[in-house]
Structures are given as structure tokens and as C-alpha cells.
Amino acid sequence: MPKASQRIKTYQNPNGQQVSTVDRRVFTQDGLTFKDIDGSGSLSAVNDWRNAPAVRAAAYVQQLTVKEKIAQLFISDWRMAKYPMTGPMAAMYKDMEHKSDEYGILDEGEFRGKTIFGEQHLPSTTTLLKDWFNRHVILRANATPADMADWMNEAHAVCEQCEHFIPVAAASNSRNENGELVFGMNDAGGVMATWPGTLGIAAAVKGYRIDLVDKFAATVRREWNACGLRKGYMYMADTMTDPRWQRTYGTFGEDSALISEIMTHIIPVIQGSDKGVTTDGVAVTTKHFPGGGARENGFDPHYAAGQWNVYATPGSLETYHLPPFAAAVKAGTASIMPYYSKPAAEKSAPQRDLQGNVIDMQPYGFAYNHYFIDTMLRGQMGFTGYINSDTGIAHNMAWGVEMLDVPERIGFAVNHAGVDIISGLFDNEAGQEAYDRARSDYYDTHPVPQGFTKEQLVLTDEALDRAVTRTLTELFALGMFDDPYRDPEEAERVVADPADRAAAAEAHRRSVVLLKNDGTLPISEGKKIYAEAFLKNPEQAQAATQALRSELKGCTLVEDAAKADIALLFVSPSSGEYFNATPGYLELDICENKTVHNVDTEGRPTADTHTETTLAGAGRLAEIAAAVHAHGGKVISNINFTMAWQVGNVERISDVLLAGFDTYRDATLDVIFGRFVPTGKLPLTLPKGDEVLAVNAQGVCISPNDVPGFAKDRYMPDSLKDENGKAYAYRDAAGHYYEYGFGL
Question: What is the pTM of this model?
């Protein structure tokens, strides 16, 4: 039998919904074609595409079994047969059985073992869809457009074999930005039209026009829809206020006003309208409510030290962190992802909600926090979409509810806090247990954990139906029940559109920020150039150097810096690990083997030390500069900013300094050689040095973690301020402050 993509039958209703199917029955009535979604064989409220999505969803929930509904509560990673897992996933799933379907599309292997999110059993894809009835998956494979469409089609075809048809809702992290592929942040890239990182998009918008975001979002919608990928875990509305936060590079910077403006544009264009998703749109999941940027000295909530959100500054939450989410809600975002962390009342100044009330900072992770989700997000902001938790909250990142077992965590999140999808594992059995406990004598023989009630910890029919109705409503609105199938050849054509590639290339050029120029730029022809790339990993640096030199076509390259007129240095630092705490604070200095203090379990500095490297060969930068400067040559340095690096070690030896944000090298070279006049502006403030990031014995940073860089001077001691009253931002030899919005 041919694969599903070759068996699609399509019916176009006059001025109505297109219907596509592989094996599902269709019928005609009143001259129109309908799909038998619910298996009733009749024009039921579910099957009639003329009904509103919410009406169809509410009707369908009444037909689904409890088992089928519980399966809709969970989303977890899934695999594609043609794409072996890479990075951390390869290590996690090293013992997995490798087996595919007859087409080499669906992964039919099984897995039992432990991952970073907990112990789990993963069945074959067919078993997952037909027997378990799960429909929400996270695809991280960096697949071609055709393979993505083929996978989605094959999965939908399997779902059509069930009594009740629900299409597969595959989510993905963003795929249209450049950058290192990192599990859980940006799992795929380089296949679709590739723009700079989100910091680069912010830099380009700040220095140019907001319609750049409109072009970006339109590209995302067309490409994802063509591939059948209809849900994105994107984009981050978090305001970066703690520069040590590793997720900085996925944000749009530190200005909540700019982030809000971007949300106002990016969400409606990706989703298809300003009133929510459309049949050619892609559902957006805005993250991480109420803002992940307020870290405590950079600690990440994937590990225990980062489990707190600290708001030490009066008014910081409502001033800097909530506005972008309010903008996202107003723009119609389909879903919102709360962060892992929990508010730290004892470390925070009083914060007020949107109605001026002092916020009740209950110490529960935000996915479990009724006040933040129900009172603030739904009640005050007016959010009507669904809540999709971050990955792992029911197991390894259950901050604030560690005393509950997994079924109780599920009940507390869904029934009490209002979560609609829990990301992490396919916890169907635990969900069933939470449901059964509402109807059994379980709590007659087991104590209710202190501080909770039985009603908060069980899964009721009302909560279950509410959650499933919300997610089904989105699938109906996307047209996925009626027309889920996509043409793999068309997917390849759409993604290959040269107009989108050209728009992305322009964005790369506009993302370049010129920080320093003594008149060296643009470079004139005939110069002898020494070129080298520096990264944290020496092997990667060697490969990057070769790639850089290959792009300098027509230039005279020299191997000895002492013989060069120009030293061209591409500097790409890196700090920390995503899922593991460093022995000390995340290092922002561009350094090698720097001695720094450890921290204790409470996040306070200790007398013990260790060494940190953010750039292999960092000491050679000064040596190369000295060799070039000795005979009147010039040093041009470009720093790639994934975090707010301390740039002193590079700026001091450079005659020209540029900033990129996962920007293509050729775009930076266009600026260096005068083929493009730079327009980019810094989307974040660069800290002066260690002195403005110092943490005292109590674990309190001298610059507040919950306030953006451009506002930190208000809270800095006078002893650190210069004659202009500035303390935090780096100041170069020409007197320029490398603060938000700066760019020559």
C-alpha cells in the first residue's frame, strides 16, 4: 500500500471548508462534503464544519471516553524514524529499540528508561496513537519539509483508524532562527528560512522598523503550515533582567515596551488573525509566564537552585515583566506556558497585580499557582486560551509541590490551577489515578497532604472536560479535523521561496550593531588580513576559522598576524550548561581559566574557588592585537551575543567592535567591507564588569536581578557611578556606553 501522502483524497466545498482524508469516511449533505470525525455517520454537531470550533469541541468532549480525554492532558517528546536523536536526547535514549514502519516514516521502536524529565515507557508510534490515544507530541527532529509533511500525514492516517478521530497536534520549538541547536530551546534550524536569533531580530527592529517582524512572522506561518506543523512553543515574552540567565538568547531583550510591540505583531501574523488561529495559521504558545527573566543571580529553574523568582525591587513585576504577556493576550495568543519557578515572597518586595492588589505569592511553581494563572492571567488579563505547562513539572521540576505524588500534582495543576496540557511524560496512568481518586475511598485510607484539600488534588470531570475542550477548540479552529493533510512537494516549494530567504538575509545585515569604529571601517581593498574565530570549544573554533577564511573571497589572507594590516577576530563565548548548575555563578567575562568563587546550596558565594572558561584561547586575543598594532595595523572584532557578555577583554584590544546575535558571518562581513551600512541597536545593556555583578555574603546582587540593565543605575551605590551618574553599563575608550539602544 502506498504511504499516506500518496493516498490523500481532497474535497473542496464551494465557499467552505476543504476536507481531506486518507481512510476516514466522508459523506455529502446539502451539496456539501463532511468528514465522519466522531464515527457517528451523521451530520452531527462535531462533523459539521459550519459550526463554530468551540461548539464542535464542546460536543465532541461529550462523546469521548474518559481514557481518551485523559490522554489529551499530556505532551511529550516524540521521534521520527529517519532522524536519529542527537545531543542529550541521544544519550537519554541510547537503549531504545530501533524499528520503523514499512515506509521508514513512523518510529515503531519502544523505550523504557530514565530521561532528564523522569522514568518513562514509550511505546511505538502506532501504539501511542491507537491504543494510548495520545495526540500531543513535541517534535525536535531537524527534518526536511517533505519528511515533516510525510510524518504528519502518516500519523494522521493512523489516527483516522480510531473510532474517534483526533489529529496529531505536534508542537515544536522555533525553527526559523540561526544558532547552536540546544535541546529544549531551539531543537531545529537551518532547514527553513533562517533569520538571526531573537536578540538579533530585536536589534534589527530597534534600529529599523517593526514591519521586519511582520515579514518574519509571515514566513513562519507559511513554512510551518506547509509542513503540517501547526503549533509552536514560541516566542518568549520574557524580559531579560538578570544578565546571567542562560535563556537570554531566546528573548527579545530587556525592554518590555519593545517586547510588547513585537508580541503585538508576531502573534497575529503567525496565527493568521488578531482574533486567534485560522485554518492556515500556526498556534503560538507564549512563554514563560509571568516572566522568566527575574532570575536569582542567573540560576535556572531546570535545577533546584533556580526554583525561585525573586522580585526584590518594588513594582518590578508589574513594570517590567507582566506587560509583554498582557500584550500577547491582547494579540490573541493561543496558549501560554508558565515557567517552572515559584515566587519567593520572603526575598521579594511587595508586588501588585493589574488591579493594584498586593499579589499573594504562594510558594508554588507557576504552573501550580492559582493566583497567577486564574486570578491574574485569566481574570485580570482576560486570557481565554489554554495553559501548556513547561516540560517536567510533574516530576523533576515540581517546585513547591514536592510533597505531592504524581497523580496529586496532575490534579493540583489541572483541577486547581487551571493547566490544560502538562508537558513532560505521557502520564496517562497517573492521570487516570487522579481521576479515580475523586470517586474512590483513597483519601479515607491515605492522608491528604498538609495544606491541601482532596478537592484540589483530584481530577474532576468538570476540570477534565474544560481542559480537553480548550485544546480541541484550537484543533477545530486550525482546520485540522477537516483538513489535516499537506503535500510534501508543496512543503519543499514553500520553504524554498527565495523571497523569504532574501528577507531573512536582510534581517541578518540589520541585526549587526557597530559598537566602536575609529575610522577603520569600511575596509578598503588590498589589505592583508589575518582571520580567526574563537569559541569555547577549540575544535569548533578551528572549523569556524576555516569557514570564516573561505568567506573572505578576493582578500589577501596571511597566516601570521604580525604581517597583517587587519586582524579579523570573530569571538563567540559560551557559558554554563542548560540542565546543570555550574559550581558558581554563570560567568559573563570573556575569559579562559578565570578563578571564581563557588556558591553554596543557598546560592551564596563561598571561599572555595574553581576556574571558568567562556572562550578557548581568550588570552591570544591580546597577543594577536599586539602583533598587528606593532606595525600600525588594526583589529576588528565581532562578538556573538547569546548573553550580555562583559566585553572589556575584547573592546580594549579592538579598533573596531561589532555585535552579532547568531548573525550570519556574511552579513557581518557586508558591514565590515562597506556593502551595508549598519543600523542595528543593542537590545540589552552590557555590564561594566564583575563589580556590577558582585553578590554579597547573603546572596544579594549589587545590581537588582529583577530590573533591566537600562534601569539598574537607579539602584546602584553612588560609589560605582561615574561623572554622568552611570554605574552599570560598559563604557568604551571613546566614552560610549554599551547600553540598550546604542549603536553607531
Answer: 0.96
